[in-house]
Amino acid sequence: MVVHRRCPLWIAIVLACVAGIGGRQASAQYELRIGVIDYPSGSMLAGARLAADHINDAGGLVGADGTIFQLTVVDTPPDNMEIATANMKQASVFAVIGPETDDLIAQHMSRLQAIQVPVFTPATSDTLLLSDHTGRLYRSRAAEHAQIGGLAEYLATSLAIQTIHTIQLDAASTTSLISFANALAAYGLRPSNLPVDQSRPNFQRVAETVAASAPDAVAIFGPAHLAAQALLQIRDSGYAGELVYSRAHETDFATRVPAHLLPGIISMSTWSHTLDDAASREFTRAYARAFGRLPEALAAASYDALRLMAEATARGGAVSDALAATSPFAGVQGALSPAAPLPGEISSNVVVLRLNEYGSANVVARYPDAIDIVDPTREPALEPTSAPATATQAPSATPSGYNLRITRDFLNVRSGPGTEYDIIGQVIEGTLARILGANVDHSWVVIDFRGQWGWVAAYLADTIGDRNLAPIIQPPATPTPPPPQEPDLVVLSAQPLRLNIGQSNVVNVTLLNQGLGSAGRFAVAGTFAPGSQFAGVNLAGLDAGQQATAQLHPNLSGPSGPQSVVIVIDLNQEVYEGAAGEANNQNFVYNYVADRPVLSSGTWTTSAGSIDLDGDANPDLSWTGNDLAALGSAAFAAMGQFSALSQTHFDVISAAPANATIANADQLANRIFTLMTADGHRGAMQVTSVSRNGPITIDYRIYR
């Protein structure tokens, strides 16, 4: 029999034995599934598959109790995250790699958390991990601020630049620009930001400014297509200094720039296949052999994430404890530290890249911990190594950049620039905070408040430096005011769809109080046609969020046919609902058919024989398997103006249809007929299905 070994509870195990049925327990192998949210040709998926293959080829993953597992990668595309996360749960994965982008993680955080397994994402947003409260979200490569810190270190120390201009091409790059400015400030450098009208960028004017001021370096932030245009204009202006674009090594940028302008551009990443250490060489060769292309940084991050998770799994126990116990861990990217002080951060490995004469990105600096610069060809060390004494400059004890000093007893910190935004905390007198940015008129500034952006009224504090030079930050959307506390009465539906003429009807009206306050007494009413019949009812009240059914009893008189009526709620305006609530009290239109009372209705199916539609034992029709014929004094005729039986009513039915026999069964399907029964009752019918030498099915309505 199959013996199921005892495994750590946090691992989702597919209890299907791969091998060992009838053999020894020690030889049994089980399957562990790891999920990857990526496209079929994606780098994350390829990296994960390669890692799983390497582990399986080495004999599989041996658990803490000696159980041997084979790793299986289950992938799903990120096009529909609701489906993707459902697929991961259904597959019982023990960890998830991906999705790739910050937006997907932020928008679908709750769905990812609901899988209840560790999630490793390569997304680099600095604030991404702050929104996770489960302790199961991990970043598989260095965060953006770490990458920017390495870039700033290289520019300040290796290139010894003294002046630098920054160009911001879109609002989305504000965070990157601020991180870059803060990183340079640690070396006494203050970038000069060149203003660009992001809706109508004038790159020629920007290029002229760069050429005239001739800074040591220019750093561009924004989308690839705009960055390429800016670079072309700057080089055409004659500027020969250093050009920095963080995504210069990506194809989307390189294909937009002439090949002769690519050499020398500086970029940054978390890993590169041009690294010459043993781990990178081995990974690059294996990846190229397996997939026929060179690996990207995403592939290395995914490869490391799966191997790290497998190592933790082998230790057993709780996820966070097992991952922390694997620190430091030698990955392809360098030393990984899941036990780092910042929860969820497992890597701070950064490479600075420079495009060569062929446009390929070569590593010019490597930072295992984003602080110490090392030889790019040196093996990654498990322990951080000290940099040469000249590699870094100690930040000055004097505040640099733009700072805020609190001079009041306390000052509120808000989620946006205005008193309409929520208060997220307070800062006390004497607090000194670095200004990260400001709103358009610089009346409110952004500070780093407990790991998130906080907005402070600048006019209520002292500033060090000219706060008007701080980068402009797009404020969050103005908070939506809380919904009004008044009730809001609405009509949801009314039934039935056909009312009888000449007798009392019951119209069931479904009501809802969609407001936040309870409604007292109110009336519901409508004037029904034909006959302008008023019908209304009083209700005692309706609590907030409650539904109720009101019954109206109209008595119709006049010709038959389709009708409509506005059903009014709170007819006498007894309930105050606010402007919006009062405006929708007459929004519901009830559509129905006024018709004569029915003697009989329903569906009749027969393979052959007579058909009695009014139920008086006097047959009206006969079906032979091919012919439908009227019997006795019955008669019927086709009605070409209707497509469904529900559209017909008494007054459109002929009182004396021509007697007819339909010989061709192929002409009967879905046709509508006026009908006179053998007993003289008027009606209508529809042949809903028919087959030659087979059964016929008729829907019918016969009037009294």
List keywords for this structure.
20% helix; elongated; 704 residues; Rossmann fold; alpha+beta; disordered N terminus
CATH homologous superfamily descriptor of the largest domain = Response regulator
The tally of structural domains comes to 5
Task: Give me the secondary-structure category.
Answer: alpha+beta
Basic shape: elongated
Stretches where pLDDT is under 50 for at least 5 consecutive residues are: 1-28, 369-400
Strand content: 25-35%
CATH class of the largest domain: Alpha Beta
Largest sheet entry: 7 strands, mixed
- Measure the end-to-end span: 73 Å
- Under CATH, the topology of the largest domain is which? Rossmann fold
Helix content: 10-25%
Summed up, what is this model?
The chain is α+β, with helices and mostly antiparallel strands. The protein contains 13 helices and 40 strands. The longest helix has 19 residues, at 297-315.
Note down, in words, how this protein is organized.
It is built from 13 helices and 40 strands. The two termini are 73 Å apart. The strands form 10 sheets. Strands 1, 2, 3, 4, 5, 6 and 7 form a 7-stranded mixed sheet that branches. The radius of gyration is 38 Å and the shape is elongated. It has 5 domains: 1-142 and 271-345, Rossmann fold (3-Layer(aba) Sandwich), CATH 3.40.50; 144-269, 3-Layer(aba) Sandwich (Rossmann fold), CATH 3.40.50.2300; 403-469, SH3 Domains (SH3 type barrels, Roll); 489-595, Immunoglobulins (Immunoglobulin-like, Sandwich); 598-703, no CATH class. The longest helix has 19 residues, at 297-315. 20% of the residues lie in helices and 30% in strands. Residues 1-28 and 369-400 have low confidence and may be disordered. 40% of the residues are buried. Helix 7 (203-213) crosses helix 8 and helix 11 packs across helix 12. By secondary structure, the chain is of the alpha+beta class.
